Amino acid sequence: YMALHVITAIPLQLTLTEVVDEMSQDFYLRYYVGHKGKFGHEFLEFEYRPDGKLRYANNSNYKNDTMIRKEVHVNNIVMQELKRIIEDSEIMQEDDKLWPQPDRVGRQELEIVLGDQHISFTTSKIGSLVDIKQSKDEEGLRCFYYLVQDLKCLVFSLIGLHFKIKPI
Question: Do β-strands 117-124 and 107-114 pair in parallel, antiparallel, or remain unpaired?
């Protein structure tokens, strides 16, 4: 495997004990968005495993496209940043019971294990902020929406950086 090393502006103010505690903390994240339509089952899915493995899959049959699968190991700094993003979002305090149920347009799933907390959310695809405003839990769904945007941005950046054929 090839480790991906990303340099970020994360303050390194953790003591050795805090680093060991953080590394031993249970962590898992999986996100899925997809639908079944005239081009079959089209979806985007990624997961971060506790050992730092990032798995990515994107399936589209549009114009006979094929499934893209990528795997990469990220270092502890990336994992710490991912945990920080999740904690800052406050998604672990949300509940999806008032969110729109998956429908023919599609579904989204987000599962996170962070320490002793475990959430598993399922909702319909969110087309725009208008969909959120029409929700019975506007604040919770907005929190989910923006976290998913951040998570997708991070994944696309990591995959793009790691698999770039001609680095700049």
Answer: antiparallel
